[in-house]
């Protein structure tokens, strides 16, 4: 088993040249370009997907690896996900014997596995020594295909191969990409499963009611509330940026509900500044050098102001498409990436932060 610790940014193809030029200052220890063909399998009733697992065969040159990606943990855009690997002879449908050799399954369905989707992409990666750590930077560009539907892949992954998580945060902060950039918590497997199904909009009003109900339960700790908020914010932003604007362009109420979901989130932040203060106090020894609390409170206010401006714009113009364009632009900027890094810092500081 291998534990991956990585950050992933969704970008545009133009980011490649910016990234490569930026990395030259670190004198990369290694640089390599490869094509990766990936085929994902599941049972007809989506056993793996329901358990937030992904089963794939990856072809790299003439080598084939069967991999099981398990659920793991995602904090903001920081992934920690156990993986299991098994070298196999070819790209045939995995057998039950291979699956049991890969992972100690208690029971497997009797129905055969079927191909769900594929993710094929070119990967260029660099191994960089930064401060006290080694970080692998990978630029992936290609597409996800499920039946007749497809979706582009264009992302940068930063994997901590050795060292400290804080070095990973610092390294990503130095990236000179200013727009069309955001943290992605969705794996290629998750995106593939979503592509294989019709678009479904999350009911964020229900999500918000559930959050408020959980918060009112006795004994709920500030740290648990903060983690739920961070998870909700990441999911809301990522879903909004991934959806085509056409889903909103002809529907005034869908646009109102989507912008309203962001308003509820940032209004809560504005009304509950003490939540950040309580968490900061519990980690005071680790926060001094980062000046996190004032940065996050300022960030909360900035995005709350912008959302209120957007509500006024939509109310005055009734322009759904332009409103969603402004919303997605707001949350795909360098400023928002910096906010998410600081939220992740607040979430993980004080926990074990070294990786070997």
Describe this structure in words.
The protein is of the alpha+beta class and 356 residues long. It folds into two domains: 5-196, Hypothetical Protein Pfu-838710-001; 204-348. The chain is built from 14 helices and eleven strands. The chain has an eight-stranded antiparallel barrel with strand order 1-6-4-3-2-7-8-9. A hairpin with a 2-residue loop joins strand 5 and strand 6. The longest helix is centred in the C-terminal third of the chain and has 26 residues, at 292-317. Residues 352-356 have low confidence and may be disordered.
**What is the level-2 CATH architecture name of the largest domain?**
Beta Barrel
Rg calc: 21 Å
The CA-CA distance between the termini, in Å, is 14 Å
Strand content: 25-35%
Major β-sheet annotation: 8 strands, antiparallel, barrel
Query: Which percent range fits the helix content?
Result: 40-55%
The residue ranges in which pLDDT falls below 50 over 5 or more consecutive positions are 352-356
* N-to-C series of helices and strands: EHEHEEEEHEEEHEHHHHHHHHHHE
Count of structural domains: 2
Distinct helical segment count:
14
Mean pLDDT, to the nearest integer, reads: 89
What is the CATH third-level topology name of the largest domain?
Hypothetical Protein Pfu-838710-001
Counting helices, strands and paired strands, the structural category is: alpha+beta
Pfam families: CYTH
GO molecular function: inorganic triphosphate phosphatase activity; metal ion binding
Domain CYTH: 2-199
InterPro entries: CYTH-like_dom_sf, CYTH_domain, YgiF
